[in-house]
Amino acid sequence: MSGAIYWLQKQRKAELAGLADHVGLKNYENLLKPDLELKLEEYLRVNQNKLINDPSLEPFFKRIAASPVRRENIIAITPGDEFRKPRVRRQTKAPEEIEPPLSDPEPLNTRTPQTALSLSHSIPFPPSPAALADRIETQTTSLSNSVIGYVSSTWVPSALRSVRANLSSVIGIELLALFIEAWGLRSQVLPLRYLTTLPAAPALGTGELAIKIPDLFTMLTVGFWGPVGLWALTSVLLPLVGAWFINLTDGARSYDPVSFNVVKALVAWVVYVRSGVGGESRVVVERGVPGGAQGLLIGAGIGVLASLYEAVLRN
Fold this sequence. Notes:
Blueprint: H1 3-9, H2 13-23, H3 33-46, H4 48-51, H5 58-66, H6 113-122, H7 129-152, H8 156-167, H9 170-189, E1 192-198, E2 209-214, H10 222-245, H11 257-273, H12 280-288, H13 292-314
Helix pairs in contact: 1-3, 1-5, 2-3, 9-10, 9-12, 9-13, 10-11, 10-12, 11-13
């Protein structure tokens, strides 16, 4: 590789394009950078006499001048030697000394250094680690923007905003607490019954999976309606009645959330903590509700704090 072509290779394609415009090279717009380097080198060598005084091309021509010149061996031939043929003594060989004909020679490699150079330039290697890092960052940003755009076009963002708006209120907090209590009670009054087994899938690395569904026939028994009725009475009905009668919101709400949670806490303390009523149903409710009687009191306390906080913010 000559120093001149190495100087061109160090230039960026935009700089090579500007150099091509400067020296008057035509029809280079669709060339790749390696092809543009070769064509520009050939053009500058052909027009060396005209462009050698150009200051912008001084590094190129200096490298041409510094490149080693291949010297061909010159053989002096005296007059008349071209007609003189050397006399060769003819030798005969015995039949056993005659060598067999050689097999067909292997085809020569037709790839020249110039072709290999062009092939190496056609592979899009990054020019530097910094450029590689920039390219990775660009691709990552593009991928993340595509994912964000796809998710934004679906129902997920609107559903999340709706859930957030519903939970950011006293009513949403009360409903969430009641749902947690009811879900815990379900495991006691509505047990799961075995339905079937899904076979193993070795390709996915999973074993057999047992499918269970709630035993709905339990809803026809007293063991279901006793605990459910006691929980609904102490956590929903009696607190709603107390919040409707004792309403300190000046008519802003149909019930007072502070009164609702206070009544709920009092009823839970009387029924579950003091163990006054309920019998077996009370035991089932305490086992099912997360935290038992203490969990009911904590849920009521959270409701009171949320109600007071909302009232303070409104005023």
